[in-house]
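Encode chain A's predicted structure.
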Amino acid sequence: VLGSQKVSGEEGRAYVAGTPTLAGGTAHLLDCVRTAVGAGIDLVDAVYMASAQGARILGRSDVGRLDEGMRADIVEVDAGLHPLRVFRGGELVA
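Encoded structure for chain A:
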């Protein structure tokens, strides 16, 4: 649901349900990091943009970095930036 409208997803795109009207994208944040790195952005910069900078833009002080008192949401990835394990609040969930 986007606002008051139902949305359907197809091939990485979100459409207003039952119409050809594009409502947005459905990319996962890790996909965006992988794309940025593939386009030549340094891995450290791409991760910063997706974590600390993203949290700052959203006005969130409880996420975006690993530090004492933070939530400790972590995605462990392989060399190709594909997920291996996911931690939420420091606890392994997948």
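The mean pLDDT is 92.
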